[in-house]
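Dear colleague,

Thank you for sharing your sequence with our group. We've completed the structure prediction you requested, and as agreed, I am returning the results in plain text so they can be pasted directly into your records. Please verify that the sequence below matches your submission; if there's any discrepancy, let me know and we will rerun it promptly.
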Amino acid sequence: MAKKVPLRQCVGCGEMKGKKEMMRVLKTAEGEICLDITGKKNGRGAYLCKQRECLEKARKNKGLERSFKIRIPDEVYETLNKEFESIEAK
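Please find the predicted structure tokens below.
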């Protein structure tokens, strides 16, 4: 029997994709928001496609804010943008 692939929904575009194809954005117990590259850290996770457009869409439609039920300051989005750039550069 084929193993079931865990699907996650992008908070930017709303597409369902496999967990491995996506970036996990994490809210830690301390309320800090960061990219979880390993996908194994503790905390509340929300998923984004690996395109910057999805991060922009999530910012416009407040997808991350809905997922984490908190207001997200602009600095956090800028940090996520920088982390995206460093990953895209690889």
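Summary note from our side: The longest helix spans residues 74-88.

Kind regards,
the structure core
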